[in-house]
Specification:
Elements lengths: L5 E5 L22 E2 L2 E11 L6 E6 L7 E5 L3 E9 L11 E4 L25 E7 L5 E7 L10 E7 L17 E7 L15 E4 L15 E4 L4 E8 L6 E5 L4 E6 L2 E8 L2 E3 L4 E7 L6 E8 L13 E6 L42 E4 L2 E2 L9 E2 L11 H7 L13 E4 L4 E7 L14 E4 L4 E5 L13 E2 L1 E3 L8 E7 L4 E6 L1
Parallel strand pairs: 1-25, 2-5, 3-6, 5-10, 11-14, 13-21, 22-26
Antiparallel strand pairs: 1-32, 3-4, 6-8, 7-9, 9-10, 11-12, 14-19, 15-18, 15-20, 16-17, 16-19, 20-21, 23-24, 26-31, 27-30, 27-32, 28-29, 28-31
């Protein structure tokens, strides 16, 4: 379970009203798909996605929650209603729309104690925002404690009717969204380290060691067609090595940013990250294993269909596959991903030569309370959300709470942030590699994990990145421009 670590307060707050309209997606819909103007009820329900029954926190009564579909340019009008009653889990909530920039609607970012107070039981909150210049694969999830580990998570896809890569695929609808998630048999609040999930779920179902062989998720394809699979890593803890037996994948999107196509055998997907890959159904009619191998040694197996789903060709028998993994000759390399358009990091193309340069050192002190720190400070929820503190005008930005966790940044400047891996140090931040997510922005990763060189010309652009491992001397470095005023969370 990843611990919040810091906050960036950028410039001044500018809020403007947003008028919500219902413009339905032009894609086929199923009963578990909602549009941009919807009511989303959050309630408790006992489910058994891997055969083990437990109470969960669900959006729309399902896990994962309903697929939220929209078109580029749509206005969102999402009424979230809190009907939670199970006190073994948190009964307050907020929902973060992961990857959405929320330009001029910072208040709708859904970050508890940063942009809003949590929604109490029997109350509702109306999230209103627009996406004039974003399209791609996103997701939504609870942003209160580790509540999304109890089930409140789902995919969000914004389609672009003028997608420059649409000639690469034939099918892109709700049937091609693949949500990877971990699942615990205990409520998140009761789990203690090490955080070892009981199962991997793919599109809401999976198997666990010693559990029943319940039916797995099936992705249906027709031989000869090309499919845009949208992979969403909605996990709390592990990252996954994603593969499909007998099939290569062409990456065309990272975190809502289309990239120059890259062919791979596997994709390393960290919590919060999203990829679109094009897969051609060019193999003999059969069933093929889809594999999502977590980085946790306790669950690193495919025995009995664990960590797996099924790619089923039309005409294949309804049974588990008998295919084997590999061979793999085209490994995933994050440094090989480049934006399709508008690439290039802002500022002077030298490390440390941005307008503002910040080094964030994560640690995990052994003394109580044992919580992660950034530059010696742990995040503690303030009494009032940071946005309300700013709007009240009663505090100078340097006085915003929580003290030591708020970094004031100037508007319209280039910011460089480096995050050295410290997992081998005494009191280092163990559990690497951790994903790092910045709200309200996409950033250029000028130094990726596993690579000591810097790329200012065409670095991968995304909103969630692996911070790597100290054994590789990783010092992941990102750049972005402060062109979206507001308090924005930076966390893993």
């Amino acid at each position: 379970m990843h611990t919040f670590v810091g906050l960036l307060t950028i410039g001044l707050i500018h809020l403007s009203p947003v008028v919500a309209t219902l413009i339905g997606p032009e894609h086929r819909r199923s009963s578990n798909v909602i549009g941009p103007s919807s009511t989303l009820e959050i309630a408790n329900k006992v489910i058994a996605p891997d055969g083990f029954s437990r109470s969960a926190v669900l959006a729309g009564g399902t896990f994962p929650g309903p697929l939220l579909q929209a078109q580029k340019g749509d206005a969102f009008n999402l009424n979230v209603v809190n009907k939670l009653t199970d006190t073994s889990m948190n009964t307050t909530l907020s929902i973060h729309w992961h990857g959405i920039f929320q330009h001029q609607t910072n208040w709708a970012d859904g970050t508890d104690f940063v942009t809003q107070c949590p929604i109490p039981p029997n109350e509702s909150f109306l999230y209103k925002f627009t996406v004039p210049d974003q399209a791609g694969t996103f997701w939504y999830h609870s942003h209160v404690t580790p509540q999304y580990c109890d089930g409140l998570r789902g995919a969000l896809v914004i389609y672009d009717p003028e997608d420059p890569l649409e000639d690469m695929y034939d099918v892109d609808d709700e049937s091609t969204v693949i949500v990877l998630s971990d699942w615990f048999h205990q409520p998140a609040a009761q789990i203690v380290a090490p955080f070892t999930p009981n199962a991997t779920l793919i599109n809401g179902v999976g198997r666990y060691a010693g559990g029943p062989a319940i039916p797995l998720a099936v992705i249906n394809v027709e031989q000869g067609k090309r499919y845009r699979f949208r992979i969403v890593a909605a996990a709390c803890e592990p990252w996954y090595n994603f593969t499909i037996d007998g099939h290569q994948m062409t990456i065309i999107e990272t975190d809502g940013i289309e990239v120059e196509p890259v062919v791979v055998d596997s994709v390393a997907v960290f919590p919060g990250q999203r990829y679109s890959v094009v897969v051609t159904a060019d193999q003999p009619i059969d069933n093929y294993w889809i594999r999502a191998l977590p980085d946790n040694p306790a669950n690193s197996t495919f025995d009995g269909g664990i960590n797996s789903a099924i790619l089923r060709y039309s005409g294949a028998p309804v049974q588990d596959p008998t295919t084997t993994p590999g061979p793999y000759s085209l490994p995933f390399d994050e440094s090989a991903l480049h934006p399709l358009s508008g690439g290039g990091a802002p500022g002077i193309p030298e490390p440390g030569k941005a307008d503002v340069n910040i080094n964030l050192v994560p640690l995990l002190p052994s003394s109580a309370p044992v919580t992660y720190t950034i530059n010696g400070v742990s995040w503690v929820n303030p009494e009032f959300p940071v946005l309300l503190q700013i709007l009240s005008g009663s505090r100078h930005p340097s006085q915003l709470l929580p003290q030591g966790s708020v970094y004031e940044l100037p508007s319209n400047k280039v910011i460089e942030i480096s995050i050295p891996a410290t997992d081998l140090l005494p009191n280092g931040a163990i559990g690497n590699p951790h994903p790092l997510h910045l709200h309200g922005h996409a950033f250029d990763v000028i130094r990726v994990a596993g690579n000591s060189s810097y790329n200012f010309v065409n670095p991968v652009r995304r909103d969630t990145v692996s911070t790597g491992n100290q054994v590789n001397n990783d010092n992941v470095t990102i750049r972005f421009t402060t062109n979206n005023p507001g308090p924005w969370f930076l966390h893993w």
